[in-house]
Batch of 2 targets.
Target 1
Amino acid sequence: MQPTARRAHTIARDLLSLTRAGEADRLATALVSIASTRGRGPALGDVVGRLVDTFSLAAKDRRRSLRIGEPFTLRLRDTAGLTVRPDRLDPAVAAIVRAIAASVRDDRDTCADQIGEACENADLDQRIRVLAHCLVWTSDFLSTDTTAYPPVLSCLDGSLPHRPQ
């Protein structure tokens, strides 16, 4: 494993540990720090890639153990628990949904393209949103009952474009 990949793996693992431990202040500081990093240390895309890979490996294991043969699916829910279509999400968050699906299908090129779309040329708020979603989705999936399928991903506030009331 190359040094940058090893550091991205360590950062992703540390973020998951902070999430599981409920260390909200330390987690918020880490999210802003990682999302702000440009040019030094692992890039945001590397850390997001590690989280997507972790989610994907867990999904593949779960599908295999449950003997699920149909195409990979997942469900998206808003904060009220209502179903959300991926095309209604912030484009960067939607790109991560597509990256997860591509990773589960072992489509490395599409996965990398979607992670790049989510992380490159994004402002700081979008970068934090992408990282937070990857982290919450991966942590939640790893923490759910191993017979729960398909994955249900909760969309955090700000992931849906503002809709007039």
Target 2
Amino acid sequence: MGMSDTLKARIREKLERQLAEDGAPDPEHDDTRQNAVRTDLIDLEAVADDDPLVEELAARYLAP
């Protein structure tokens, strides 16, 4: 693992991959899961690497 391969970076990659796989949002249907992923990504970007939110999102999105 390199220096840039932090837990935060791994979560960011996972969330971005999930959004990319989902494709463009459907304006006809509000996808709550997709909205939650997008919100979590925004929240992740707003905190430091050692913020408790990083651990919380890791538990939610990364397989143990």
